[in-house]
Structures are given as structure tokens and as C-alpha cells.
Recover the amino acids of this structure.
């Protein structure tokens, strides 16, 4: 069945070594230490042995050639077993089996590699391929030193396992155990998947609610963005309208301010003119008052003279001629006094008209500029005082006229008395 063994770097076999096992009995003979057991362990290692103790090594890395004085240590250990083909075992049936090459390689870095007919594979694939031919590390296909004694001293369970391996039952049992382990793992995974399914269903419901809430939030955000855009547009339109209205109001205010400034300037000009007219009216009133005082003094003088004439009635006879001349002189002066009185009355009327014009101008000026007219109120008060002074001047003129009338009456009485005296 084993037709060829190729070794390289395994234990004492530093260089490549190939052994062809021909049909019949093949025996390897040599002294102790020549590597006979190493050759058997190489076959066992190629079968997939994982226990370094069965290979007489403290660790699996010790199977590599450690080096000698003449050669360095090997970088890797490699063993290839070639199993010859042939008919299947009795009772198995099927087509004839072909040649099978099993290779195991181990590097000093600890990298392991398994190959079947040169193709990389798993250790399990190697074990399955060898189990189909009744070969495995635990089978009796390789009988090591001391193993016969161990078989003889083994328990019934150990012998039963050995017989099962020899009969080819061990491989199906191992497959069944692996299948049961896989089923157990699949059951655990299925339970975990069910738990995950329940958890994911709950999460899916929560995510669905969140997705619907996100869709509603997105719709609301879109609507809110539209409302914000409309609000911004409305605010922009309102701002433009307010700006236009403000500009119009500013223009109107500027025009009103300009008009108010012009009106204020006109009011100030009219106030100046009113003040000038008021000053002229005051001067006229002062002149009228002066004339009235002059007329009052003349009337008083005439009254004193009339009284003097009345006091001297007793001397009328002696001084008739002189009194007649004096009366004629008084009569000649009376028209002049009356003319002066009429002139004073005319001047007083002109002063009153000027005062009325000044009052009207001051009233108009007060109506146009009432906010700050302290000076105009003072002018109005001065105009009022002028009016009052004019009224006082009128009263004085009336008193002068009354005194002149009394003087004229006294003069008439004096004339009558003089005529009566002349008639006597």
C-alpha cells in the first residue's frame, strides 16, 4: 500500500531522502542511532499526528533537523507519503482507487501546511483521505516499539478502539462525533440566531418607528424650510415696503422741515417788521402823548386865565377895552388850539391804527410760530402797553378837550358879562 516515502529536514534526515517500497516485504536494517525509528515516526507524522510525545520530541518544532557541525539547521521539515492505488477494500465497492500523495510541511516559524496530491488542504481532509484507506495515527497500521506490549496490557475499551480502527469503524464514528458536534454547534447557533432574530425584530420595530419619525421629521423640516423661506420673503417684501415708506416719510419730513424753516424765517421777518411797526407806533403814541401834554398845559393855562378873568370882573369897567382885546386875542388863538387838538386827534387815530396793525401782525406771527415765541409775547405785551398808553393819551386828550370846552364856556360867560357891563 505504501509505495514511496520522501523526507527532507525531518529529525536526522537533513537532506532529501526518497525510499521506494516495492511489492513484497520491505525491511530497513541498521545499527542503533541510524534513524530507523525516525523513519517510522516520519510516516506517523505525515499521517497527521499532533502529539509530540508520540514522536519522541518535547515540542512539535523539535522534529526539524537541529543542525550539526557540518550542516546548519533545516528551515523546514517535509514528509511525503505515496500510497499506491488499487481495488477498494472487500465490501466497500465502488471504482478502483488511484494513487494518493500525502504531504506534511512545518517551518521553523511554526507555519504548518498539508497537501493531498500537491493541492493544499486541511488536516481534516488528510485524516478523511487516510481513513478511507484504513490508515490513521491511532490505527494499528504503524506499530511502534513497545506498542505490542501496550496492546497486550490494554483494557477492553482500548482493544475495542484498536479493533474498530483496524476494521475501519473508527472513521465513521469520528465522522458521527464531528457531525454531532456540528449539530450541537448548529443548535447553539440556531438558538442564538433565534435570540438574535427576536432582538433584531424588536430593533427593527424600533428602527421602523424611528424611520417613520425621521420621515415625519424630514417632511416637517421640509415644510418648515418652506415656511422659513416664505417668512424670509415676506419679511424682505415688508422691509422693502417699510424702507420705501421711510424714504417717502423722510422726503416729506425733509420738505416739511424745509417749509417749516422757510415759515420760521418768514415769521421772523414778519416779527421783525411787526417789531419795527410796533416801535413806530410806540414813537407815534409817545408823540401823541407829548402833544396831549402840550394841549393839557395850554388848557390849564387857558383855565387859569379864565379864572383870572373872572376874578377881575370887578375891574371890568376900567379894563373893558383891555379885556375886549384880551378876549379877541383868546378868540384868535382858539382856532389855532382847536387845530392843534384836531391834529392831535388825527395823530392819535394814526397811532391807534398802527397799534392795530402791529397787533394783527403779532397775532399772525404767534399763530405760525407758537413753540418758541417768547420774544413775540414780549413784543405783544409792549404793543399792549402802547395801546394802553394810547388810550391814556386819548383820555388825556378828552380831558384836555373838556377843559378847553370849560375854558370856552368861561370865555363865553366872560364875553356875556363884558357885554352886560358895556350895556350898563
Amino acid at each position: 500500500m505504501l509505495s514511496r516515502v520522501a523526507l527532507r529536514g525531518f529529525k536526522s534526515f537533513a537532506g532529501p531522502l526518497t525510499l521506494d517500497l516495492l511489492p513484497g516485504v520491505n525491511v530497513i536494517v541498521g545499527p542503533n542511532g541510524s534513524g530507523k525509528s525516525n523513519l517510522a515516526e516520519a510516516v506517523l507524522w505525515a499521517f497527521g499526528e499532533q502529539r509530540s510525545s508520540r514522536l519522541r520530541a518535547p515540542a512539535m518544532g523539535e522534529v526539524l533537523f537541529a543542525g550539526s557541525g557540518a550542516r546548519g539547521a533545516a528551515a523546514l521539515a517535509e514528509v511525503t507519503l505515496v500510497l499506491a492505488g488499487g481495488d477498494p477494500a472487500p465490501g466497500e465497492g465502488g471504482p478502483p482507487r488511484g494513487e494518493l500523495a500525502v504531504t506534511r510541511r512545518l517551518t521553523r516559524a511554526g507555519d504548518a501546511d498539508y497537501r493531498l496530491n500537491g493541492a493544499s488542504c486541511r488536516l481534516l481532509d488528510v485524516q478523511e483521505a487516510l481513513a478511507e484507506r484504513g490508515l490513521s495515527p491511532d490505527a494499528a497500521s504503524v506499530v511502534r516499539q513497545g506498542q505490542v506490549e501496550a496492546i497486550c496490557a490494554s483494557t477492553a475499551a482500548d482493544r475495542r478502539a484498536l479493533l474498530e480502527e483496524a476494521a475501519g469503524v473508527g472513521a465513521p464514528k469520528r465522522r458521527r462525533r464531528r457531525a454531532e458536534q456540528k449539530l450541537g454547534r448548529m443548535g447553539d447557533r440556531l438558538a442564538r440566531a433565534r435570540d438574535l432574530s427576536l432582538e433584531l425584530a424588536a430593533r427593527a420595530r424600533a428602527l421602523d418607528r424611528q424611520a417613520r419619525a425621521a420621515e415625519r421629521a424630514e417632511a416637517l423640516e421640509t415644510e418648515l424650510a418652506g415656511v422659513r423661506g416664505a417668512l424670509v420673503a415676506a419679511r424682505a417684501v415688508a422691509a422693502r415696503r417699510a424702507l420705501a415708506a421711510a424714504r417717502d416719510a423722510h422726503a416729506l419730513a425733509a420738505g416739511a422741515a424745509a417749509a417749516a424753516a422757510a415759515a420760521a424765517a418768514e415769521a421772523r421777518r414778519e416779527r421783525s417788521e411787526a417789531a419795527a411797526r410796533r416801535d413806530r407806533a410806540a414813537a407815534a403814541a409817545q408823540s401823541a402823548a407829548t402833544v396831549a401834554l402840550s394841549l393839557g398845559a395850554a388848557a390849564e393855562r387857558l383855565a387859569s386865565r379864565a379864572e383870572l378873568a373872572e376874578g377881575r370882573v370887578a375891574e371890568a369897567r376900567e379894563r373893558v377895552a383891555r379885556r375886549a382885546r384880551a378876549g379877541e386875542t383868546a378868540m384868535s388863538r382858539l382856532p389855532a388850539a382847536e387845530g392843534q387838538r384836531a391834529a392831535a386827534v388825527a395823530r392819535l387815530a394814526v397811532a391807534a391804527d398802527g397799534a392795530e396793525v402791529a397787533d394783527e401782525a403779532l397775532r399772525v406771527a404767534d399763530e405760525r410760530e407758537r413753540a418758541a415765541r417768547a420774544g413775540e409775547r414780549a413784543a405783544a405785551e409792549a404793543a399792549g402797553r402802547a395801546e394802553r398808553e394810547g388810550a391814556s393819551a386819548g383820555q388825556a386828550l378828552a380831558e384836555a378837550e373838556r377843559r378847553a370846552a370849560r375854558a370856552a364856556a368861561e370865555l363865553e360867560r366872560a364875553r356875556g358879562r363884558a357885554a352886560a357891563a358895556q350895556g350898563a
User: Anything to note?
Assistant: Helices lie at 36-46, 123-131, 147-152, 156-167, 170-311, 320-368, 374-423.
